[in-house]
Amino acid sequence: MSEVAEAVREQTETRVPATAGTAADARQFVIFHVADEMFAVPLSEVQEIIRMPDVVHVPMSPGALEGLANLRGTVLPVIRLRQIFGLGTVEHDDSTRVVVLDQGRPVGLVVDRVANVVTVESDRIEPVGSIQGTVDTDLMTGMIKDRNGTSMVMILDAVKVVAREFQAVETILDHASGTAAAAAHHDRGQAEDDSDEIQLVSFEVAGQEYALPIEDVQEIVQIPDQMTTVPNMPPHVLGVMTLRNRLLPLVSLRTLFGLPPREVTDTNKIVVVSLAAEGLALSVGVMMDSVKEVLRVGRAVIDPMPALLARGSNLGEIQSICRLQGGKRLVSILCAEKMFNAGELRSVVDKGTGENTDMVDEGEHSRAGVIDDEEQFVVFRLLNEEYGVPISAVHEIVRVPEQLTRIPQTPDFIEGVVNLRGVVLPVVDQRRRFGLPSLERNDRQRIMVYSIRGVRTGFIVDQVLEVMRIPASVIGPSPALSDEQQRLIRRVANIEKHKRMILLLDVDQLLDVKELDVVGKAAA
Predict the structure, then answer these.
(1) Is 376 or 172 the better-scoring residue by pLDDT?
(2) Are 511 and 428 in contact (CB under 8 A)?
(3) CA 441, 445, 450 angle in degrees (round to 5)?
(4) Which of 223, 327, 419, 511 gets the highest tally of CB atoms within 10 A of its CB?
């Protein structure tokens, strides 16, 4: 057996050791197998070798991209070498490894198995012109020949492999963060229009629909795995939970309203509500049965609570009623300040910590401080991946109607149009737009409504998960995988602590100029 093709070592996740001193005319290579071929890359280009990680699949990316993985807080693009060389696909197994290259930013190559690290004298390396194989020799720099000439190993030009597949232009990456920030600023300006409308976050408790003004809602999060109960508290106080290194009191809206309790399920959500009391900015988490929609409604359909009912002690939390669908759907709008007692909330946290600590929401306490280091996103799911859009870009979130009016001679990703409060809204199937498998309609799907360069458009997503504040420290530019992907997915939130990677979309790039023109005509 050739010294190059030594017995495959059983490897665990490991960093490649530093190059030991070698002769001046010798080089070191990492040798690995892909199908029936053997390849090498210079050891100096290899950062480490790891087992196959969990990956996030990216739409509109090259076919050779396995996905994005988390490498100790860094976003790692993972490339399938089998795909690049047309060697057929196989299932990953215990031998599959990812060779992580250092190209300024880490890039991973999926290989079938790793053989070893060898030291090769320069006279055993032949130029690329002598290679006669089944793979693309344009991606090779040479060939390592065995001493007896019975075995050959092709040396990969790793930089060319990555550059050809992903067009990794540094200027695009460096420019991404600034462009995304400018887009977010534009979205915020757009959201401040339509002063005769307000936005509401609606939710359901015991079959009744309630809502809070969107400015009172900091975020929407999942039910925590753990919450700490606090003794000697009213029944509606569930306890406290940790949210980004601070304690948040939790309240059950069911119990607060005197409704019977029910078992907690995946549909329950915690709505984090902000309120000002006694000169302090306070926060409280309110458990809801389910979160329904983000509504944008005209002030003309909002009526104050009738005086006779408002005098009732158990209805003081409801400040107004929103009439939708010609009065067939009534939404009770709550007043956060009237729902909660500031002293009670501080007492909950004091007892939860065992210290006399004011319950001050750090994010609200200093607009110039912590809040500037976070961004707020609406997070939704498509297939098995999570995506986020700036909350300022979302006009509203509504249910998918039973029927949409289809428009002939339009792209297949345009599902049709709906009548949204007298306005014709074009609706795009986000799965088809991304080239993903279709999905039958279900109750979890929602239409997220954006304004794309002045054209209001709805996009059907599988499920809206939460409204989330994401620290700027975990947001970075997306690897440049393709031109279209780079325009659309400019940034990635890599939340290592929770093992989540969220692809952050640029809403203005969801449709190109031609597609936007078609959508605009459909709405006319």
Answers:
(1) 376
(2) yes
(3) 125
(4) 511
Decide if pLDDT at 38 tops 80: yes
Give the 3-state DSSP-derived string for 449-479, with helices as H, strands as E and coil as C: EEEECCEEEEEEECEEEEEEEEEHHHEEECC
Tally DSSP H helices, then E strands, for the chain. 11, 34
Closest CA to 325 of 292, 301, 357: 301
**Closest to 168 (Cα-Cα) out of 474, 485, 506, 475:** 485
Structure tokens belonging to residue 5 = 């093709």
More confident of the two residues 481 and 418: 418
Task: Using DSSP, state whether 67 is helix, strand or coil.
Answer: strand
CA angle 292, 295, 300 (to 5 degrees): 135
**Model confidence pTM above 0.85:** no
For residues 79 and 58, is the Cβ–Cβ distance under 8 A? no
* Distance separating alpha carbons of residues 96 and 113, to the nearest angstrom: 5
Q: Is 254 helix (H, G, I), strand (E, B) or coil?
A: helix
**What is d(CA 397, CA 291) in angstroms, rounded to the nearest whole number?**
11
Domain 373-523 superfamily per CATH: CheA-289, Domain 4 (2.40.50.180)
pLDDT of residue 11: 41
Tell me the one-letter amino acid at 399: R
